[in-house]
Amino acid sequence: MAALLLNQVPKLQRIDVAGIRTKTLPRSRLGGGEVTARERVAAAGDEGVGSGSHARYGARFAAGCLGPRRTAAAALTVLLACTAPLAVAVTPALIPAPAHLEVQGEGLTLRDGLEIRVGAGREVAAIGRYLAALIRASRGIALALRSGAVAPGAGAIDLRLDADAPAGEESYRLEIAPAGARVTAHDPHGLFYGAMTLWQLASSAPRQGTELALPGLRIEDAPRFRWRGLMLDSARHFQSPEFVMRYIDWMALHKLNVLSWHLTDDQGWRLEIRKYPRLTSVGAWRVPAGRAAQRDIDPATGRPRLYGGFYTQAQVRRIVAHARARYVTIVPEIDLPAHATAALVAYPTLAAQPAELPRAVPADWGTYPHLLNIDEATFRFVEDVLDEVMALFPGPYLHVGGDEAVTGQWQASPAVRARMQELGIPDAGGVQGYFERRLGDYLSAHGRRLAGWDEIVAAGLGANATVLSWRGVRGAIVAAQAGHDTVLAPDPLMYLDHRQGASPAEPPGRGAVISTADLYHFEVLPGELAALSQHVLGVQANLWTEHVRTEERAAYMTWPRAAALAEVAWSPQASRDWDSFLARLPAEFDRYRTLGIHYSADVFAPLRHVAPFERHMSQDLRTCTDKVVLNLEDDAPRVGARAVFLIDIENPCWILPAADLTQARALTVAVGQVPFNYQIGRDRDAIRFDAPHTAAGELEVRADGCDGAPLAVLPLAPAADNDAVTVLPRVALPRLAGSHELCLRFAQPGLDPLWAIDWLQLSP
Ligand code: ACM
Questions:
Q1: Sequence-ordered strand ranges (E) for 517-641
Q2: Whether residue 687 sits in one domain with residue 538
């Protein structure tokens, strides 16, 4: 039998030699006094190295200790070190960590032909089949699936429901010894998770020739929370049905069990509704924002190419069946009464202010003013839609959005005001309450439960409404105090559209960094919520996709942060241990590579240091303000790699903290232009630019502050007609003694397009 070699993972160390600046959230948004992710990561490394307290992390990790390196060839001042071999590891690299695990000497040798014996029932057989398929796909071992009892000592994998198994829902027991492995559970859901744990062990089991050595152990496992969710936004960008099914597979491997599926929003309606075909024939298609998209003419129509797509009901049925087989409940979200512009464009009579609607599905991000009206005909429409949604999705919850309804259009509409008077609704604030209560009653009458974002709390909902708290955890507290179930999904920690590292190699997303460590340290039941825990169903991370254009990036933004989420949601609070999680990640990354899951290895990336005369990407600069910072993808070229600019869209202005102007003689800057496609209400009026001196505008560079006379001016004319990145002609810099902060800001004629810095480089 092979020695137990699981969890051969590196001990990690980060040493910040040069005081690298990394962008982190303002502390206020993370909670007062909380340390930043980088500090925590650094602390985790510092504690572990040489302390002798982490011997269980064991032997040297092969292949240079690191996952993929994605930083540029900058001089790296941080060392990511592997310790010398210490001891044979004993903790299997399982994620999420099981509730109870005892390692018990020798385990089972897996080889071709070894049996998986499944107990009675179709579901049990299906679980056995899936386990065999996963082991075959990931390790090349072909197990033989048989039904019926297993002979004692047969050396088989025994998979069955058992009254003696741990009693809680989704719980399971897994025992592995030389005589065989046994997975038992009370319910198929628990049995499935036992099988997934067994697969994780097989996926990282050391190979000896054609055999795999599973460790001897005993696990008794049960979830901490019953809502362990991910939200996938398929409205802003569309993912194929195949991708959605793979996403569900990946969730299930992590014991995540709720997919909140955001199917409709201002920029797209993605669900076929038979009674209202225009929802998808019109509402599922848009022209992307900006000049590059306007120039991209579809030869079939002679008009700008449309972006979009939708799920047919047949596809949804397949996805729902697939989710059921992976023990994932889909909570479909039909976002109403705001975030519904695509539906309103398709059926304008539903709108509070039809005259203010755009003529086509819009491509701006942000918060639109458009709202549904409260006519009876509109409720009939909504109920018809919900009928079809209920027929497709068998789960208990239907999510009806409810977020960010700005009441202006209700106030301004004479028809809505007249209806309010008839209904005795005193003010526009009460309209949403009326709306949510009607929908909640309708769903209750059909045996379903309304779920919505935390704005619905104020609406005076029926008791069985479930509230997803996104504006911090306050909504969860208020909801739980009012007797509602609640799920914690707060921005920013649970918003996977934030970039997960500060490296220029990170794909587009919101600018603030939410790292895997940030997510891992999320406390689900802080202070006031601890006393209300009976109402806290669990936790959910949300992948909004305004800036997530491709499926690869949707996966990348999700993993490994959702692995951290899985541990937060599944494992006992007392066993939460970042060091241990970090040590289990390399094995997890091996699984991702095996399964073809795109993921971020930023957690192991060296901190980046850029030498004075190397290229500084926008991500290496500081934004002058942190109003709305985005890591924004260029809108061109149509095909191929696009630049990504870190930019505060409400104040495009960048700081290079230290430029040696004794040495630097010239400056080269590469710039891009992006559409200003943001619905930000009045904030738009507050965006100011310096007056340009030429038609196209200029980039102005100042020293030691952003006011005063420019040190250098770079005319934008050479870039004016290029939708992609242009390297502007190099400009000379005046000689100034010493090191200076440089401020770079555009003088431009208007807001759209928005100019952005891609990179700058000083020359000696
Ligand atoms: C939300 O982010 N508007 C739920």
A1: 536-543, 616-617, 622-623, 629-633
A2: no
